């Protein structure tokens, strides 16, 4: 199914935007810039808007989600918006009982830890009707972005599965890692389900107007390379299979994934996101000719400006090792970041001399 004729990539609004051109491998005079978690807790206007509204409820209010998505574009002048939502939203929309607990993260009342649990989970189906708050929110946002691309996103199957098995956030994901070996059949069924719901979630955003898609694997860094390749990579590829026919740029990002960067690429994406742990020139050497996204250390956003500026210059210089580079953080914006730093940083990058 092709993109509709009024899609921003088709009707001329975003097809030649710097971000999309960089994602497609065309080096830009200065790297396009956006920030993961650029919409959210670091913005006072976000905190005012969200006051008294639970996190997942705000994600499922199309008007609210759209306004939050647009806030950093207005404030910082970044080169892309990313749709405000949460990776567990498709779980909620499929009927799974999940909540975001402040200070902790996603928590499930009934963790999925046995084959019987997986069988019950697979009875939950994510329908097009359930996704309407997402498609409406995306459409509202795109109608106001003009030539600025919107990025859609989804949580990678392993990260979703880890939340489901652990019942909430975990430092080491022992239960999930144990399940993949102790009951491979149940693990496969679980990963098929998470791949399909996140694929449907991402597809809904792209068809509604998002110009690129990003798959986040927050917890893949807890895996050995052999476990990732044997038990996880196929499911990430399956999630992305849901949108390949749309021919939009696809990005894969994982935290702590330096040892598996080639495997992130090999699930079939156009761009690989790199966290702050590995310099971009080293990532490029591991990956070969693929556009990179990253990888400012989020901790340096609170450093004195000369320190941050020197670091950003170094990141940009190392990014020249790749065919194209989109400047981003190596993870999300910390909640206590001064928004003026992001605004200044964006203006600084846009004001740099054009690269040959």
Keywords:
alpha/beta; two-stranded antiparallel ribbon; 9 strands; globular
Structure overview:
- With about 350 residues, the protein is an alpha/beta fold.
- The chain is built from 16 helices and nine strands.
- The chain has helices at about 10, 20-25, 45-50, 55-60, 60-75, 90-95, 115-120, 130-145, 155-165, 175-180, 185-210, 225-240, 260-265, 280-285, 305-320, 340-350, and strands at about 80, 100, 105-110, 150-155, 210-215, 250-255, 270-275, 290-295, 325-330.
- A seven-stranded parallel β-sheet has the order 1-4-5-6-7-8-9.
- Helix 15 (about 305-320) links the parallel strand 8 and strand 9 (about 325-330).
- The two termini are about 40 Å apart.
- The mean pLDDT is about 95.
Supply the number of helical segments: 16
Distance between the termini: 38 Å
Number of strands: 9
Largest sheet strand order? 1-4-5-6-7-8-9
The chain-level mean pLDDT equals 96
Strand content: 5-15%
Q: Uncertain spans, ≥5 residues at pLDDT below 50?
A: none
């Amino acid at each position: 199914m092709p993109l509709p004729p009024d899609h921003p990539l088709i009707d001329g609004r975003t097809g030649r935007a710097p971000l999309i051109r960089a994602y497609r491998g065309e080096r830009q005079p200065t790297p396009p810039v956006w920030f993961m978690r650029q919409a959210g807790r670091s913005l006072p206007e976000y905190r005012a808007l969200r006051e008294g509204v639970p996190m997942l409820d705000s994600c499922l209010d199309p008007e609210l989600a759209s306004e939050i998505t647009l806030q950093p574009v207005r404030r910082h002048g970044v080169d892309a918006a990313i749709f405000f939502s949460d990776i567990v939203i498709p779980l909620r929309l499929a009927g799974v009982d999940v909540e975001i607990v402040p200070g902790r993260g996603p928590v499930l009342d009934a963790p999925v830890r046995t084959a019987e649990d997986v069988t019950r989970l697979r009875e939950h189906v994510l329908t097009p009707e359930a996704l309407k708050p997402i498609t409406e929110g995306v459409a509202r946002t795109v109608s106001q972005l003009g030539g600025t691309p919107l990025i859609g996103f989804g949580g990678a199957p392993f990260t979703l599965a880890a939340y489901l098995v652990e019942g909430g956030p975990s430092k080491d994901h022992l239960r999930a890692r144990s399940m993949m070996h102790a009951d491979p059949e149940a693990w496969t069924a679980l990963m098929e389900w998470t791949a399909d719901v996140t694929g449907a979630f991402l597809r809904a955003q792209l068809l509604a107007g998002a110009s690129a898609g990003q798959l986040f694997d927050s917890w893949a860094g807890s895996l050995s390379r052999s476990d990732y390749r044997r038990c996880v990579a196929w499911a990430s590829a399956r999630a992305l299979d849901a949108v390949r026919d749309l021919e939009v740029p696809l990005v894969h990002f994982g935290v702590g994934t330096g040892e598996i960067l080639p495997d992130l690429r090999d699930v079939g994406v156009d761009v690989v996101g790199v966290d702050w742990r590995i310099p971009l020139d080293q990532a490029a050497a591991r990956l070969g000719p693929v556009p990179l996204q990253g990888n400012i250390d989020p901790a340096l956003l609170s450093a004195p400006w000369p320190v941050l500026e020197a670091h950003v210059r170094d990141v940009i210089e190392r990014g020249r090792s790749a065919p194209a580079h989109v400047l981003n953080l190596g993870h999300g914006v910390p909640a206590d970041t001064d928004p003026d730093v992001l605004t200044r940083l964006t203006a600084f990058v846009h004001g740099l001399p054009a690269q040959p």
